[in-house]
TrEMBL record:
The keyword Nucleotide-binding does not apply. Gene3D superfamilies: Metal-dependent hydrolases, Urease, subunit C, domain 1. The keyword Nucleotidyltransferase does not apply. Belongs to the metallo-dependent hydrolases superfamily. NagA family. InterPro entries: Amidohydro-rel (IPR006680), GlcNAc_6-P_deAcase (IPR003764), Metal-dep_hydrolase_composite (IPR011059), Metal_Hydrolase (IPR032466). Its EC number is 3.5.1.25. It comes from Anoxybacter fermentans. Pathway: Amino-sugar metabolism; N-acetylneuraminate degradation; D-fructose 6-phosphate from N-acetylneuraminate: step 4/5. The active site is at 277 (proton donor/acceptor). This is N-acetylglucosamine-6-phosphate deacetylase. Zn(2+) binds at residues 134, 199, 220. Its cofactor is a divalent metal cation. Binds 1 divalent metal cation per subunit. It is an enzyme of class 3 (hydrolase).
Length: 388
């Protein structure tokens, strides 16, 4: 099947390509032709999508998502996971990493088994690209919305057992200052596990040691970690200084826009990733919900525990992209690096996903001129369409 995308601005890593038609064939990006080279005869008998001045973007990848539309990854429900996947696709996401929270080993094992089964189901939703275990190997001092009694030291043997069932990439969040953490990071990196530093009260030196042991990125930078101080740069200072990728939640709640802008000057183009950190209340009305066994109240853009602690977010990737452009003031080219290219590279998928290049998977997010998602295309299939 061949699809022609016409009258759109193609967002490449190098900039925006205008006056071109993007051709999808057999699930791949096949050609980018000058508009003048494409006539009605060529378009005849093929599917044509008219962008009407909108944007053709590389498909977005969310590497940190706990849930949405009433479902949590830890529920262990295949139908629920597919519901999340369909919702993510409606918000422009072509691939995501289901993210668990601190829980018992048995509950985490069950969640991974269900994620693995859901990965095999071919439905009209965002592709499941792995599993992110955000806890229980964290520091109680920076627990956020994690149950303290379930936080434990790093366990290499158990992680190896769990990894066998993880589909795609396995990410583990670690507080590197905790008992046995550095040895754990070294061993897990040898086995291909991605290590994120997060929910940590570590010093600058702790994070540098974690980076040297193989840590790859920082979890929701600035949140759930020791902040920046001019005599002890802390976790934030280490993420800023070292070649660690920085996750950011750009919802106007977790981070002030100026902070995102400052961080972008240090980390763009290739060391910054947009995430949602969304929990089950995303896409739903205000009210009481649950995250990791704790009660959470959603009000507007915020999700908080009873004591006011932020508990994930209710952000969508569409909103994150819009906020990064409008609220922070970043270019759409830079924002696509954060939403697509950098997460694909982190996950080791850059050979086939994350940017618009001939021969790569036709994973595309199509936007109106106002940055609203209008179609989501995964491997050449239109899985979401806002307008008939």
């Amino acid at each position: 099947m061949t699809i022609y995308l016409i009258n759109g601005k193609i967002v490449l890593r190098q900039g925006i390509l205008a006056d071109h038609v993007l051709v999808i064939r057999d699930g791949k990006i096949a050609e980018m032709l000058l508009t003048d080279e494409v006539n009605d005869l060529i378009l005849k008998d093929h599917q044509v999508i008219d962008l009407k001045g909108g944007y053709i973007c590389p498909g977005w990848i969310d590497i940190h998502c706990h849930g949405a539309v009433g479902v949590d990854v830890m529920d262990g429900d295949i139908k629920g996971l597919m519901k999340i996947a369909r919702f993510k696709a409606s918000q422009g996401v072509t691939g995501f990493v289901p993210t668990g929270i601190t829980a018992s080993f048995d509950q985490i094992e069950r969640a991974v088994e269900v994620v693995a089964k859901a990965t095999e189901i071919n439905e009209d939703g965002a592709k499941i690209l792995g599993f992110h275990m955000e806890g229980p190997f964290i520091n109680p001092a920076k627990k956020g919305a994690h149950q303290e009694e379930l936080i434990v030291p790093c366990d290499t043997a158990w992680t190896r057992k769990l990894k066998v069932n993880v589909p795609g990439r396995f990410i583990v969040t670690v507080a590197p200052e905790t008992e046995g953490a550095l040895d754990y990071i070294r061993e897990m990196r040898k086995e291909g596990v991605l290590i994120a530093v997060g929910h940590t009260d570590g010093t600058y030196d702790d994070i540098r040691a974690a980076y040297e042991a193989g840590a790859t990125h920082g979890v929701h930078t600035f949140n759930g970690m020791r902040g920046l101080h001019h005599r002890e740069p802390g976790v934030v200072g280490a993420i800023m200084d070292l070649p660690l990728i920085a996750e950011v939640i750009v919802d106007g709640v977790h981070l002030h826009p100026a902070i995102v802008r400052i961080l972008s000057k240090l980390k763009l183009p290739d060391k910054m990733v947009l995430i949602t950190d969304a929990m089950r209340a995303a896409g739903l009305e205000d009210g009481e919900y649950e995250l990791g066994g704790l009660k959470v109240w959603k009000k507007g853009k915020e999700a908080r525990l009873a004591d006011g602690t932020l508990a994930g977010s209710t952000l969508t990737m569409q909103e994150a992209v819009q906020n990064a452009v409008r609220m922070v003031g970043l270019s759409i080219v830079d924002v696509m690096q954060m939403a697509a290219t950098n997460p694909a590279r982190l996950l080791g998928l850059e050979d086939r996903k994350g940017s618009i290049e001939i021969g790569k998977n036709a994973d595309l997010t199509l936007l109106t001129p106002d940055l609203e998602v209008r179609e989501t295309i995964i491997e050449g299939r239109v899985v979401y369409q806002k307008f008939n």
